[in-house]
Write a structure and sequence with these properties.
4-stranded antiparallel β-sheet, 124 residues, 7-stranded mixed β-sheet, globular, mainly beta
Length: 124
Amino acid sequence: QVQLVESGGGLVQAGGSLRLSCVVSRRTFSSYVMGWFRQAPGKEREFVAALSWSGGSTSYADSVKGRFTISRDNDKNTVYLQMNNLKPEDTAVYYCAAKPRGGDSYKRDAYDYWGQGTQVTVSS
C-alpha cells in the first residue's frame, strides 16, 4: 500500500516561487516512477513532470520546462516540485502520483496512486 501526502501549495504573485512536497508512506520501489499533474478550473488533469525514483531521470511538460524542477530526497521518502517564475496560468490543483515503471509517464491513467492535491494560486 502506498499513500502520498502533499504540502506546499499556496498563494503567490506572478514571478514568485513555491516548492511542493509529496511524502510517500513507504520507500518507493526502485522500479517506481513519481509524477506531478495539475488540474486547472474547467480543464482536464495534465502532466507536469515525472521522475524515475532510482535513476533520477526526469521529464517535463513543455509548458514548465526551464521553470519547474522535480527532485527527490531518499532519506525523507519525499519528492519535490520546485516551481519558479510562476505564471497565472500555472494556477491549478497539483497532484502527486506514483506508478510502477512501464507505460507512458505522461498519461495520468498509468498512475495507480495519487495524493489529495494541493492548491496553487498565482496572482497577476
